[in-house]
Write a structure and sequence with these properties.
Layout lengths: L2 H14 L13 H9 L8 E4 L6 H8 L4 E5 L2 H11 L6 E5 L11 E7 L8 H14 E12 L6 E2 L2 E2 L5 H8 L3 E12 L5 E11 L2
Parallel strand pairs: 1-2, 1-4, 2-3, 4-5
Antiparallel strand pairs: 5-9, 6-7, 8-9
């Protein structure tokens, strides 16, 4: 999907659907928070949430005391909704409106978190652009966390075809520059009483 069409698509989603009317809604992102606890991520770590939109991860990280948070999303409307929800705490977050495949970071990160943005990249060029920007902008020994629909998950999300990943396939994408730590599958319960199966992997950036 071309960048302009992708932007317009997600703009429409966030302008027409309430927070709990999208399949990825999680009041508490348990799996994502598991990684922060497991790796004892320092509170001053530079963290970026890719495709974070108006998810609640940033809320929980702020409550835990994290002080250097960035949230990137292609849809400005999603970030505006998150800002409204956070109120004064929104000023503690760096908000970035960008398509991830054209993102040019101005700093390097200690933690790169992506729950379900990566699987929307359907072409080899988009995947290559993503892996390159992660490789160049994650600190040595930095933590990469990626969640995608598994091979047993949906084929589409919000009307867009996605790319499913098994644990082996997702590991293979990043194996040139990253060391896999662990992969597992987890079910996500949507607000519509359905279940989506995800593949999650964590990696360390090779020094």
């Amino acid at each position: 999907m071309e960048e302009l069409n992708r932007k317009n698509h997600w703009k429409n989603i966030y302008q027409t659907k309430a927070l709990n009317e999208v399949s990825w809604y999680q009041e508490k992102p348990e799996t994502s928070l598991y990684f922060f606890e497991k790796f004892q991520v320092p509170l001053d770590a530079k963290i970026i949430d890719i495709g974070g939109g108006d998810s609640f991860l940033v809320n929980h990280l702020l409550k835990l005391g994290y002080t250097d948070l960035s949230v990137l999303d292609i849809a400005e409307a999603s970030l505006e909704r998150a800002k409204i929800r956070l109120g004064e705490d929104a000023d503690k977050v760096k908000w970035i409106v960008s398509d991830i495949v054209t993102f040019v970071p101005i700093e390097k990160y200690d933690v790169w978190h992506d729950r379900a943005a990566f699987h929307f990249l359907s072409t080899e060029n988009e995947v290559a652009a993503y892996t390159e920007v992660v490789k160049n902008n994650l600190q040595d020994n930095g933590l990469l966390i990626v969640g995608t629909f598994s091979e047993n998950g949906p084929l589409k999300c919000s009307g867009i075809e996605i790319k499913q990943y098994s644990q082996t396939q997702l590991s293979h994408v990043f194996e040139d520059s990253f060391k896999k730590i662990e992969c597992f599958n987890v079910d996500h319960a949507t607000p519509f009483n359905t279940t989506q199966n995800f593949t999650f992997c964590s990696f360390l950036k090779a020094a």
